[in-house]
Specification:
The complex is a heterodimer of chains A (about 325) and B (about 290). Chain A has about 325 residues and is α/β, with parallel strands linked by helices. Chain A is built from 11 helices and 14 strands. Chain A is globular, with a radius of gyration of 19 Å. Classes of the chains: A alpha/beta (about 325), B alpha/beta (about 290).
Chain lengths: ~325, ~290
């Protein structure tokens, strides 16, 4: 906790989008490594690749509205020694480009970083066509692929920079809307390593539920944890920004301590972070589990906060899930 | 580049004949595979691996090698045969095509076999990757050098021009004026379900490519000397990518397979294979069989 933002629960907490963190990270990578190249499908500005493109015009390739080609060209660059980052909206890539990602990137084990932007309900007014709610599930079933969902702009920058250290495909998921920046420069970040963001004994009792989340909605899990503490319900909140590979040992260790789990993600409850955890626990240490996420439905046009309310991603929804899962414990 | 004399041309023709025999034997042995396109492209693969490509079978990852992307991965038997005959791996291994634990996958896998630049099979995505390689070659070329470090060749089927992805890549190659990219189309006029012009008319391919800012060459895909001439011209063209539309005969070399789309993905039985091998070895009875 002490390593998170000083302003974590304050009204004036900084608000920035995770896509901004991507833009900063990519620019830094460009300065550090001349093999880093960027490709966009006519959305370089909204994906914040424009900073990289302006500084390194020779290493930026604008392919137009052609996502399948975006992926294939990136794969060709990668097998020739470059470290390509592709940037378009998640609904288009992986949405439109699953087969190209599967064959040209993953089967080749090509060193491409796929930045999926405008993911989740935070895309807001653009509506269901532009709100990717299935991308985590799609990407985590592809061999060789790693899946990372940063929780705020700082973590997004760290994830972008870290991904270039991995020799192989990585899917990075970013959001359009500004969200609280609740981590800090000091917050530890390693792809594949989950971090405890909250631990409350709530008056000496042991924690009763492990909340595991990823992405900006993790902030709501922290708000929920804070409320639960007032009600003397202790929980642990784990940031599992890496959905694949899961930090299995850490999760199992904490599940043994808590005995129940609530997963929190801005994604369909089918096949995403919650699904990955359920698979892990079913095999190793089954406990009662509740899932926070969209319930196998499409989104719609509205302000993100209204969508979070309607689709059950608010702190109160997480609180209810925690109470429900406690009742299910024997 | 080696001098191209009549002796070399004869060698390349004989090698093509050998590749055709390998293809028939491999597909017979595997019990499945795509013979028509593999036979159609034997002459061109002979010319590529034994004359045109700058490569080193003993050092498959040589950074300055020319790249060959096989976009229509289903004709990999002819590429496997060419790689083996060129010395990338033992010819004996050709027998393992499509068998468990083999490096010779039904469609090529980059991680499995030396000499395979990219995994392929799903149509329409090879040219995109070739464009990526050509862009990388250009980034890696010396500052102010007019020439990229290596040439990228992309072998494609005619039918994969049904795919939107192919045209996305054609458009981008034209935009970036990729003079170090040569596409080679196996224009054999057949695909799985029938003749290309019935399934989805492609003509005029020449005019389409020209409209996308490519240099277009057309030739007889079974005339090795003509093909080498076209490939040389493509290398010389600096200001735009080149496509060589190679007019070939599906199933070339075996009378009962030629022009027939049913052989796109049908294996031969033992009797058919024997007949095919005899025809290939004797050039359809024009010469005596030697072994």
């Amino acid at each position: 906790m002490e390593k998170l933002s000083d302003k974590i629960f304050m009204e004036d907490i900084e608000q920035r989008a995770t896509r901004d963190g991507f833009g900063e990270g990519l620019l830094k990578l460009g300065e550090e490594n001349e093999n880093v190249v960027g490709l966009s499908a006519d959305v370089s500005n909204s994906c914040r690749m424009n900073f990289f493109a302006e500084k390194f015009p020779k290493r930026f390739f604008q392919v137009g509205v052609a996502e399948q080609n975006l992926v294939g060209v990136a794969a060709g660059l990668a097998v020739s020694g470059k470290i390509p980052f592709t940037a378009t909206y998640s609904v288009f890539s992986p949405g439109r480009t699953l087969e190209q990602i599967r064959t040209a990137i993953a089967y080749n084990d090509a060193n491409v970083k796929i930045a999926g932007h405008h993911a989740g309900l935070l895309t807001g007014f653009d509506g269901a066509t532009h709100q990717a709610l299935e991308d985590i599930a799609i990407m985590r079933t592809i061999p060789n692929m790693k899946v990372v969902v940063p929780a705020d702009a700082i973590e997004a920058r760290k994830a972008t920079i870290f991904s270039a250290k991995i020799n192989g495909p990585v899917y990075l998921r970013f959001a359009r809307e500004k969200t609280p920046v609740f981590t800090s420069e000091e917050t530890p970040f390693t792809i594949g390593k989950a971090e405890i963001f909250w631990q409350s004994l709530a008056g000496g009792k042991k924690p009763e539920v492990l909340i595991i989340g990823c992405g900006p909605v993790l902030y709501n899990a922290l708000l929920a944890a804070k409320e639960l503490e007032k009600e003397k319900i202790g929980v642990i909140v784990l940031n599992s920004h890496t959905v694949k590979p899961l930090d299995e040992n850490k999760i199992i260790e904490l599940v043994k301590k808590c005995g129940a789990v609530v997963s929190v993600e801005e994604h369909n409850i089918l096949g995403g972070l919650g699904g990955a955890i359920a698979e892990l626990l079913a095999k190793n240490y089954p406990v009662p589990m509740e899932f926070i996420g969209t319930k196998d439905v499409f989104g719609e046009s509205a302000a993100p906060k209204d969508l979070f309310k309607k689709y059950g991603l608010e702190p109160k929804d997480i609180i209810n899930a925690v109470k429900k899962v406690i009742k299910r414990k024997k | 580049m080696e001098i191209l004399n009549s002796k070399k041309i004869r060698f390349l023709e004989n090698t093509a004949c050998l590749l055709r025999q390998d293809v028939i034997e491999m597909i017979l042995n595997a019990g499945s595979g795509h013979p028509a396109g593999s036979l159609a492209m034997a002459d061109i693969f002979s010319a590529l691996y034994f004359y045109i490509l700058k490569h080193n079978p003993k050092n498959p990852d040589w950074p300055e090698r020319d790249r060959l992307v096989l976009s229509n991965g289903h004709i990999c038997p002819v590429q496997y045969a060419a790689l083996a005959r060129a010395g990338y791996f033992p010819v004996e291994e050709l027998k393992t095509l499509r068998k468990l634990n083999s490096r010779l996958q039904g469609h090529p896998h980059r991680k499995a076999l030396p000499g395979i630049e990219t995994s392929s099979g799903p149509l329409g995505e090879g040219l995109s990757q070739a464009v990526g390689m050509a862009l990388a070659a250009r980034l890696d070329s010396a500052v102010n050098s007019p020439r990229a470090k290596y040439q990228v060749y992309c072998v494609m089927s005619d039918a994969e021009h049904d795919c939107g992805n192919t045209w996305e890549a054609i458009m981008l190659a034209g935009k970036y004026k990729l003079g170090n990219l040569t596409a080679i189309i196996d224009r054999n006029n057949i695909q799985s379900d029938g003749f290309t012009e019935d399934i989805m008319p492609l003509e005029s391919l020449r005019e389409k490519y020209e409209a996308f800012n490519w240099h277009v060459l057309e030739m007889d895909g079974h005339n090795i000397e003509e093909f080498i001439g076209a490939a040389n011209e493509a290398r010389a063209i600096f200001e735009k990518p080149t496509v060589i539309i190679a007019h070939t005969i599906a199933g070339k070399g075996v009378d009962f397979m030629e022009f027939d789309y049913h052989w796109h993905a049908s294996p031969l039985n033992k009797k058919q294979a024997e007949e095919a091998l005899k025809e290939i070895k004797t050039l359809k009875g024009k010469i005596e069989e030697t072994d």
